[in-house]
Amino acid sequence: MLFITLYEIISYLINIIVFVVIVQFVLSLLIAFNVVNMHNQFVSAIYTALNAILEPLLRPIRRIMPNTGAIDFSPMVLIIGLTILQIIFANLARAYA
After folding, report:
1. Is 66 within the bounds of a domain?
2. Which of 23, 64, 77, 86 has the fewest CB atoms lying closer than 10 Å?
């Protein structure tokens, strides 16, 4: 029962991180295509906060990955890695339940 509870907590946190990565990605696209403006204080605050939250997770991935130019694949790698981690924890929770 403890492993299932632990899995649910970890799964919930992983889902939140994946959601934040997707929001940051969409916001960066909107900024890149001038749909929203960084001179807007609200947009700037949200983007800065999301980058501050995600940078410690994305920085090690960016160091390992080769430079791909203007396209940053590190958010996709983070989401894939977190999904794999979630699958591993789900199988461990089922094995010890």
Report:
1. no
2. 64
> pTM of this prediction?
0.89
- Token pair, residue 25, equals 């990605």
Domain count of the chain?
1
d(CA 6, CA 89): 9
- According to the model, what pLDDT value does residue 64 have? 94
Cα 81 to its chain centre, rounded Å, is 10
Q: For residue 10, tell me if it sits in a domain.
A: yes
Range of the domain at 21: 2-61+71-95
Are 21 and 75 a contacting pair, CB within 8 Å? Answer: yes
Low-confidence ranges of the chain (pLDDT < 50): none
